[in-house]
Fold each of these.
Amino acid sequence: DTAVSQTPKYLVTQMGNDKSIKCEQNLGHDTMYWYKQDSKKFLKIMFSYNNKELIINETVPNRFSPKSPDKAHLNLHINSLELGDSAVYFCASSQGIGGGGANEQFFGPGTRLTVL
Amino acid sequence: KQEVTQIPAALSVPEGENLVLNCSFTDSAIYNLQWFRQDPGKGLTSLLLIQSSQREQTSGRLNASLDKSSGRSTLYIAASQPGDSATYLCAVRPGSMRFGAGTRLTVKP
């Protein structure tokens, strides 16, 4: 049973296109996240949602729009894709947003986005 | 702003050795610290989470320590195996999770 799943696993597209990445978690968690891992393998938080509400937006361009239809899903839509958007995007979830042990973050397998 | 540094960037050891990976952070006001491993082309697997009130956590051959006052954590791997080869990442919270750049570990048979 996959805890945090993402689709697609690979995405190759042209500059200027609009694309979406989907994320689902079956852990019953309240909080979900999107991270970007660039070519230097550095991971950075992009967004965090708690109970379908946006709680963290780390100065991400407004071409990126997360959508959380319910607590189990957090999708990422990207408009007008640019070359610099090429990266691996990871979804994650945790029970809550506090610092306790129950709020350990679990990651999906990643979506490798390549913009040509 | 919280900055997380991991040293060394890469480490190669023969099988069976005990080893220590280091993680340091600039702001000691953290909620927790989490260690992950990432295999090439794969996602992150959570290894250990240490809450700010704790000093260490253990799981099998792994032991992670936390010294908040000095802004440091170590991940100790006992009796290393080739299957331990991966990139190890540490990350701290509060607020957004901040990651280090990782230590790429290679365990040679």
Note: The mean pLDDT of chain A is 90.
Amino acid sequence: DTGVSQDPRHKITKRGQNVTFRCDPISEHNRLYWYRQTLGQGPEFLTYFQNEAQLEKSRLLSDRFSAERPKGSFSTLEIQRTEQGDSAMYLCASSPPMGPNTGELFFGEGSRLTVL
Amino acid sequence: KQEVTQIPAALSVPEGENLVLNCSFTDSAIYNLQWFRQDPGKGLTSLLLIQSSQREQTSGRLNASLDKSSGRSTLYIAASQPGDSATYLCAVNVIKAAGNKLTFGGGTRVLVKP
């Protein structure tokens, strides 16, 4: 079990460019989450998948943001036409199917985005 | 809307002293509460998960209590060490059916001085 893996760890881009982040959850975890964390704040929920279905999206997820989990395994988060306000750490987490430890989320190392 | 508050925002203690970190939440109808550790520039490491039916959880030097009726949780770290320096975050899960969406506090930044 290698844990939740995120790529890239760091991304610097110019305003207006598109960026894509990838998340590989812990194997057999059917639930996958994206959160955003700005400096000095706690993470904020963006969106959630159960298998390949995107079940909930936060109002923070503007139409420039899109997330997919096509085969119920890895997920991608794309930001189009990036703005300086998108600069943040993007965290991915996964959790197992219902069971004794239901509800425990396991986070990756995050992808830090800097928009110049 | 659930709001989670962690006070103080920062804490500095000498090595060996016990740490007491507080977390409060406004809606007591929670499914569980999770404490995390975050090192600078890193992701979150899960420390303890307390289900709503539990009063406390322990792991090594860490002990977390939960009082749903008063909307409070406390994380105790015994005999602190410089390696405990990090930001500690608490998060509550209020939606069982919709898949464990967490609401986080702002964190407490801890510095343990040698």
Note: The mean pLDDT of chain A is 92.
